[in-house]
Write a structure and sequence with these properties.
Layout: E1 3-5, H1 6-12, H2 18-27, E2 35-36, E3 42-45, H3 46-61
Antiparallel strand pairs: 1-3, 2-3
Length: 75
């Protein structure tokens, strides 16, 4: 079980910066929770980050529904 520090997580997520990582952790409830190593150091389990990325990729690759949920527009 590998723990990734903040810099490694940013690199794994495509080279994002610290602020973007902070926003993801704040706004995306599905993003893995950080592990507090001590008072100043946090990390994330690599397998949880990998699973999150796979989930995001699966959502992107899922076929779109052919049925529209929008009401018909009047002309």
């Amino acid at each position: 079980m590998q723990i990734l520090r903040r810099k490694a997580v940013c690199e794994k997520l495509g080279g994002i910066n610290d602020v973007t990582l902070w926003r993801i952790t704040r706004d995306d409830q599905s993003f893995p929770a950080a592990v507090h190593i001590n008072r100043r150091i946090v990390g994330w389990f690599e397998h949880e980050i990998d699973a999150w990325l796979e989930q995001r990729a699966a959502c992107r690759a899922a076929p779109l529904s052919t049925t529209s949920t929008l009401p018909p527009t009047s002309k």
